[in-house]
Write a structure and sequence with these properties.
Strand content: under 5%
Radius of gyration: 16 Å
Distance between the termini: 43 Å
Shape: globular
Oligomer: single chain
Strand order of the largest sheet: 1-2
Length: 206
């Protein structure tokens, strides 16, 4: 039987991941942003899940809090996709559902267009291999959506978040448009699931 961590265990794992990153031989300059982002995604997912029949708010919170667990390493310094690190560590801990979220929050469509991403081409084979057998559910889509609502230490609209991603990673117009349409598709999905504009649920001004 799969064991799923409760909120207290998730909080402990979250702190363990941060401590691990702080122990690495390079600075964790974005610790405050990481804390704000991951907790923000968790709290947003919990609020939306409470409005979607069949979803358990606490599970949504745990998924959100740990979705970026792989950022316990520096993706650029160690040349390893943070989703892979998160997936591998959560599998070792016996949490395959969270391991899946570590990947799907970046790839809400398993048949993704690689042109959307600025990752090294050699990462994609590993990613496609792991995504292939996965069956996505509303938790995968919910965390992928909430991940697009936080930038630095603020909750923002999808448009603002994508603009920041474009600046940070130098995405092309094609990459920007693919990311925007994918993100808005997720928003419309949860608007329909909740019967409300999810921005209103979150108190986010449009």
């Amino acid at each position: 039987m799969t064991v799923f961590p409760d909120r207290d265990r998730a909080e402990a794992l979250w702190e363990e991941g941060i401590r691990y990153r702080l122990s690495r031989p390079y600075p964790f300059d974005l610790e405050c942003e990481y804390r704000f982002h991951t907790r923000g995604v968790a709290e947003a997912a919990e609020k939306i899940a409470a409005c979607v029949p069949g979803l358990v708010p606490e599970r949504a919170f745990v998924f959100g809090l740990l979705h970026d667990y792989g950022k316990r390493i520096s993706q650029s310094r160690e040349n390893k996709f943070h989703g892979q690190e998160g997936y591998e560590q959560m599998m070792k801990l016996g949490y395959p559902e969270i391991a899946q979220i570590c990947l799907t929050h970046t790839f809400p469509d398993k048949d993704f267009n690689p042109e959307q991403y600025s990752f090294p081409p050699e990462w994609f084979d590993w990613i496609r291999c792991r995504l292939a057998p996965m069956v996505y559910d509303d938790y995968d889509l919910l965390i992928a959506f909430c991940d697009k609502l936080f930038e630095a230490c603020a909750m923002v609209s999808i448009e603002e978040r994508i603009a920041a991603i474009v600046r940070r990673y130098g995405l092309s117009i094609c990459q920007r448009d693919l990311l925007y349409h994918q993100s808005m598709k997720l928003k419309h999905y949860f608007d329909a699931k909740t019967g409300r504009d999810v921005y209103e649920i979150l108190g986010l001004e449009k």
